[in-house]
Amino acid sequence: MGRLVFLFASSLLLMVAATTVSAATVEHSFYVKNLTVTRLCNRQVITAVNDSFPGPSLRVREGDKLIIHVFNMSPYKITIHWHGVFQLLSAWADGPEMITQCAIRPGNKYTYKFRIINQEGTLFWHAHSSFLRATVHGAIIIRPRVRHSYPFPKPYREVPIVLGEWWNANVVDVETQALALGVGPNLSNAYTINGWPGDLYPCSQNQMYKHRVKQGKTYLLRIINAAVSSHLFYKIANHNVTVVAVDARYTNPYVTDVMVISPGQTVDVLLTANQPVGSYYMTANNYASGSGTAVGVPFNPTTTRGVIIYQGASSSTTPLMPVVPAFNDTPTAHKFFTELTSLVGGRHWVPVPLNVDHKMFVTVGTALDVCPPNVSCLGRPPVGAALSASMNNVSFVSPTSLSLLQAFFFNVGGVYTTDFPANPPVQFDYTNPSINLDPPLLFAPKGTRITKFKFNSTVEMVMQNTAIIGVENHPMHLHGFDVHVLAQGFGNFNPATDTPKYNLVNPQMRNTVSVPVGGWAVIRFVADNPGVWFMHCHFDGHMAIGLSTAFIVENGPTPDTTLPPPPKDLPQC
């Protein structure tokens, strides 16, 4: 018996040692400051990290600890969010301004410390203050631990593809102006691939992303939509790709020639260079889900493109151009959003929890607000109202003197209430445009109303788009968790007919879920991560006007399920 105990203890020590050896500490310094770049015939001052746009890629392995020193040398307050990282017991490092921390003021610094646990694939980091995310962002590339392999053939090369959008303006001013007028922000002037607009834009013939490939080799493209307010179709001429992961979750292989990626989402695909030697354009253009509605949500109709160049291709060859999807191609978008499934049994796969403790039905969409002081409210009918947004008729307002997480941790009253409604206060025909003729339905009161969950409780949420102002596909991002996407559909959610459609076997997992235009999505997750977690539309213009809420997850029963105190250098308001 003693020998058995000794052998078990020795084996446990070896396992712990192996885990320790396979994990590393990855340390970086981010210097946030002004950078002057030339795009679209203009010299523009932007805010950037380490003089690069996009910012530096973080390359880590699952299990690694990250230490990121952020020095704010810009003229703006800022925070950095590590989008999709669970932040298990490190909620203080999550980054959304006034949710988990106060902003880092100009001239100050903050060190983010966290581990990458049970995640592999592609995520990204970005500013979580005003519209600074437009230029302050970069990839997070998470490879398996040492001696672990991908659940697909090893690629010849790995290539980050960061999709973004560009304004010929100061992006902070873009948001400030929109809020001052009570309208949506001005449209961007271009889309970008790895920071370059491509040759369809003025003065951009030599500002196009190029990637060279060898015929017969397979490449892992890590595609990130870092755009501020645009879903993007992505295609490569004459090439199919195989989707193998989304939002750092492995999927069953899915072959397609087109992808649609919402702001905040990532898609990992295998691209095999199996076409004749030549050059092939890659393109990204807007999926403008609300453009065909009665309201006609405005959008940027342009296309960015880069080029795949085969080794040996003639420089005089004109690249082949793909057929770009129509901006309102909802059937193609919905097919991609709904047909992906999880790789059951793959590393870090999580089965769907079957017993639900909290059921929520939450409307998501735009709204109106009584014109606030110092806002003109002249840009959108009815005159005298400002554009707003809400979830269950609550237009979220961030605290101003203390972050939600600080208020929760130190039990400070008066910062928030935990009475966010689990169901709409008024039931109506959610997707019927005629609701816009009923003014009381259009106005959403402001408030910092959130929800509290017991540790390890299971939450199911139906997110229902509304036709208030106009229907639109909303990319809803939940911090701190991945969720099972059980089903998605159009029209009003019907429990009797739609619940049987739930995929409880291998649904895709996401941290950002696109709620279909004029439709609904059902998600489920286990609240096993203590802290305060932001949920919001990843259109920054919508987040700024209240399309958000937050969840408190209480501590668990043991020290390893209890949130530790904040770091000493946590910024103060």
Q: Report the top-level CATH class of the largest domain.
A: Mainly Beta
Average pLDDT, to the nearest integer? 93
Span between termini: 59 Å
Shape: globular
What is the correct CATH architecture of the largest domain? Sandwich
Low-pLDDT runs of 5+ residues are 1-20
Order of strands, main sheet, comes to 10-9-12-17-14-15
Tally of structural domains: 3
Assembly type of the chains comes to single chain
The total count of helices amounts to 7
CATH-defined fold name of the largest domain: Immunoglobulin-like
Largest sheet: 6 strands, mixed
Secondary structure class reads mainly beta
Helical fraction equals 10-25%
List the main descriptive attributes of the protein structure presented here.
about 575 residues, mainly beta, Immunoglobulin-like, 3 domains, 6-stranded mixed beta sheet
Fold and architecture overview:
- This protein is mainly beta.
- It is built from seven helices and 32 strands.
- The chain has a six-stranded mixed β-sheet with strand order 10-9-12-17-14-15, with no helix packed on it. Strands 21-20-25-30-27-28 form a six-stranded mixed β-sheet, with no helix packed on it. It has a five-stranded mixed β-sheet with strand order 11-19-18-13-16.
- It comes from Gossypium schwendimanii.
